[in-house]
Amino acid sequence: MNKVKIEPFNIIGISVRTTNENGQAEKEIADLWGRFMNEKILEAIPNKIDNTVYSIYTDYESNHAKPYTAILGCKVVNINEIPNGMIGKSFDGGSYVKVSAKGDLMKRLIVDKWTEIWKMNLDRTFTADFEVFGEKAQNPADAEIDFLIAVK
């Protein structure tokens, strides 16, 4: 677990308002990924910095147990041109704790890591937490994902 500084950034992608109650987020975020892949959202995002996909959790009602917005998208140069059906959002960056998970994405890798994170004694801000799906995530059966959690 490393503490890192994240610079401000912009994202364009698709989103869903969800909650972790009753496993709702697990289903809705999986559906969001399905839509992201099926509708070729990655190719449709304008002004991308690169093809790294970010899964961002933001607009928390209070903490991880209450509703929040999940966004799947890419970092972009600016959010001046947002395609229909997508959202653009700017994030301030700040202090983050970085943890990683390695394994099979189809076997609850992400959900299990978040369950661990929720139990950690972190002074979280609940502004914007995210996962990074870069080059090390290309093979879903043996992926390495970074998780960044906003802290004070």
Automatic annotation (TrEMBL):
SUPFAM superfamilies tied to this protein:
Probable bacterial effector-binding domain
Q: Which residues form the AraC effector-binding domain?
A: 1-152
Which Pfam families does the entry mention?
Cass2
Lineage: superkingdom: Bacteria
Protein name in UniProt: AraC family transcriptional regulator
Recorded source organism is: Sphingobacterium corticibacterium
